[in-house]
Each structure stands twice: as C-alpha cells, then as structure tokens.
Recover the amino acids of this structure.
DNA sequence: TATTGTTATACTCTATAACTATA
DNA sequence: TATAGTTATAGAGTATAACAATA
C-alpha cells in the first residue's frame, strides 16, 4: 500500500501542495476565508492603487474568475472599490478588512513556520529558491 | 507589479504546483487525460489486486470522489474491474489502457525532466526530500 | 484597437451525508 | 461493526467565449 510515485518530483510537488493547502484552508476557515480570498487581502494590504486586472495578473487569476472572488470579499464588507476612471476602480481594504488582514497574517505566519519546521535543516534553505524557479516568467505560458 | 508574497514558502509551493500542474495538464491533454486520471493509470500499472478504496487511500482521494474518476476511465475503455468478492473488485488496465499508460509514462518522464531542469544544480537534489516531508503521515490528518 | 469589467457556462477537484450490501 | 461502493449534492478553482464600455 506504499506509493511508488513518491519518487517523482512533480507528483511530490502536487501532493505536498495539496496537503499543505488543506492545512492552510483549515486554519483560515476560522476567519471564514478561503486561500484565494486571504491572498487577495494580503496583496491589497495598504495599497490604494490596485485594479482587479492588476491583481489578476499578479496572482495568475483570470479576469473572469476575479469577479466572484472579489464579490465574496465585498459582500463580507472586507474590501471596497474606489473609482480611478470611468473604466477602473482601485481595490482597498475597509476597516473590518484591515482587522481581518491582521488575523490572516497571524494565521499565515504560523502556517509558514509549521511548514518550514517539517523540513530537515539541510534541505530547508533550498526549498524557497527551488520553488521560485518553477513559476514566474514563462512557466504559465 | 511584483509579488511580495513570493517570500512565503507556502505561497511559492502553491504557485509552483499550480504552474507545473498547468503544464502537465496541457501535456496530458493530447492523450485526453486529466492529471488524476493519469495518476490512476500509473498506480494500477501491472497490478491486478488494487481496489478502489485502496487506491483512494494511496492517492488521498475520498471514496465518493473515486466513483466519477474511475467511471471516466472505464467509459474510455482504459480500465476494467474484476470481482474479488461480493463487495470488492480489482482495478486492472485493459489492453488499450496499457497502451495509454505507455504514452502517459512518456509524457510524465518528459515533464519531470523539464521540471528538474528549471532548478539550479545546487538546489536540485534537495527538492524531492523536502517536498516528501510535507505530505506523508499526519499531514492530511 | 487594446484594455477593463462583466456574464454565462462548464469541467475538475474536493467535501459531506446518507444509503445499500458485504466482510 | 467495519468496510466497500455508490448516489446526491455543494462549493471552490479554473477555463473559454462573448459582450459592453472606456482608454
């Protein structure tokens, strides 16, 4: 009942991501937030110049899929939209949104610490640079 | 338009997995297979003793979610089910299923090579052991 | 013309609850 | 009682196509 696919880095990447994101989702559920929602709050932060389309490019989420994601956050009263011009609006955090962001930052820093603690010393420093070679320019293409 | 979240290993893990799985999905689409479907074919391989519930445990897929997944493979004529007892059936590859598996193995080995090639020499050997610390026992919990 | 934002739609993956039948 | 398999259902995430309005 073992798993021979564990020798494949791509398979291990998928399993590791699924397992850790499951844990993160559980941790964020106490704030009634999904992972994508929390990521949006963290990306907006103190900024007051971020458009939906900008954020989609940063997070690699398509325009059409930003709509229900931002709508959920707006319905919860966590974000607001400030007109920039007739076509675009800047995403900003509301006061409740900033309070929730502080909780999100607390949860995620705990989560990141737990993640790193699972990795033996000799491998730990290599993980982030290795992972960051797998996305960025040209990987989505 | 940069992404400060890239300093978080958890975020990088999710982005790396999404990016690479997007590439793998695209590569597998020429065989008209999803990633989960391909993983099932690879897991069955030459075995003739694997039950749906066993496979679900290995791949961390719930019983209920195995049903449509296996049904798609069965509808495509790639897997068959051999009664073990009145309650269980063994999953086996059909001859067409074995042919598709060979194509899957070709695609995935190319994919794994591409993945590793993206990582600088000094980090490469650390990736698999680090990732394998993040799933296994207790991570799903 | 290109970009922004939106609607509609569909597929995959995931999760839970409840049911049947067999070990 | 526990396990195997199924059905139904719901929520996310992701993908495409098409449209209106603005830069």
């Amino acid at each position: 009942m073992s798993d021979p696919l564990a020798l494949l880095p791509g398979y291990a990447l998928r399993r590791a991501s699924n397992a850790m994101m499951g844990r993160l989702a559980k941790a964020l559920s106490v704030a009634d937030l999904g992972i994508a929602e929390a990521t949006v709050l963290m990306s907006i932060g103190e900024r007051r110049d971020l458009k939906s389309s900008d954020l989609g490019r940063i997070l690699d989420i398509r325009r059409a899929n930003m709509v229900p994601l931002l709508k959920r956050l707006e319905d919860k009263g966590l974000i607001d939209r400030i007109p920039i011009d007739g076509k675009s609006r800047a995403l900003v955090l509301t006061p409740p949104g900033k309070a929730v962001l502080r909780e999100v930052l607390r949860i995620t820093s705990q989560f990141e610490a737990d993640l790193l603690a699972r990795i033996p010393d000799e491998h730990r420093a290599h993980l982030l640079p290795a992972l960051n070679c797998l996305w960025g320019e040209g990987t989505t293409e």
